[in-house]
Amino acid sequence: MKLFNRNIARTLIASALMLGLAACGGESTQQAAAPEPAVASVTFSSQAEDGAAAFASNCAACHGAELEGTTLGPILSGNAFLQRWGTQTPQLLLNNIQANMPPGGNDGISDEDYTNIVAHILASNGVDAVTNALTASTDFQIADNISRVVAQRSRPEPEPPQG
Questions:
Q1: What are phi and psi for residue 153, nearest 5 degrees?
Q2: In degrees rounded to 5, what are phi and psi of residue 146?
Q3: Are 127 and 88 in contact (CB under 8 A)?
Q4: Quick one: the chain helix, strand, coil %, rounded to 5?
Q5: Is CB count within 10 Å lower at the N or C end of the chain?
């Protein structure tokens, strides 16, 4: 009979321990999931950085690593670029690139990649008055956001010769 009582006592103790653990909230040994990091806000400069990588892998073979142009693709920097695109908007540039580049199309380039590539091209050409991220509808005159171009425009006229 003593053996029977011991088994009952052990069973009761084990049950009490199990109930006690369950009452403590069933704590697990797994660590709590880390809180999700806040989504970094997208800026023009971060788009330009991402666009440099997208340009290198999708555009540089034809347009040159430094946007200098090749026999396969036109120059995308300097005065040649400003003469063609300076009076246009990023929206028009983006639409043109999406519609025509690369020739034959490329399903591997996302809309975000195209926008980032435009940001890279603009930043490489001195667009420095933009801080907000570009979108498909960004509408400003490109040359008006390049401080060196604006400075040249606002340079005072020299005095006319006398005599």
A1: -65, -35
A2: -115, 110
A3: no
A4: 50, 0, 45
A5: C
